[in-house]
């Protein structure tokens, strides 16, 4: 294990830099995903019964009260899309928004999945705390993306039904 070779101060610096690299790399990898790969919800992104089209997040997590206070980095990379507001109110804009919530959710899942790597050079307690950091930092963003996507998908369904009746 690397911890035998690194002093504690260096280990802390490596930990901080590693999280920065993991977040940047997973964000960039998600940014580079082709749009076709994000055209629909796969197994990991699909809605679970308990989520109730995003209502669970509103009722249990009160997400509508705090979601706009967290940072948003969707436009960080060239060509990226901010999810602070809808790109357009037509079906194409809503579909773009849904696709970008999938992209952001995947980036946060991938960053969270980097947590076990810290076991390689940290003692058990530090590795556990760093993994907890990964969960605590990424889960709120995952929840926000899911909440926004399910609500937007419901809006798209209503628009589609409205179009088919006229």
Automatic annotation (TrEMBL):
Family of this protein: Belongs to the acyltransferase CrtO family.
Residue intervals passing through the bilayer: 125-144
InterPro entries: CrtO (IPR044021)
Membrane topology: Single-pass membrane protein
UniProt source species: Nocardioides pinisoli
Keyword Ribosomal protein applies: no
Function: Catalyzes the acylation of glycosyl-4,4'-diaponeurosporenoate, i.e. the esterification of glucose at the C6'' position with the carboxyl group of the C(15) fatty acid 12-methyltetradecanoic acid, to yield staphyloxanthin. This is the last step in the biosynthesis of this orange pigment, present in most staphylococci strains.
The protein, known as: Glycosyl-4,4'-diaponeurosporenoate acyltransferase
Keywords from the UniProt entry: Acyltransferase, Cell membrane, Membrane, Signal, Transferase, Transmembrane, Transmembrane helix
Pathway(s) this gene product operates in, as recorded in its UniProt entry: Carotenoid biosynthesis; staphyloxanthin biosynthesis; staphyloxanthin from farnesyl diphosphate: step 5/5
Subcellular compartments: Cell membrane
Repeat listed as a keyword: no
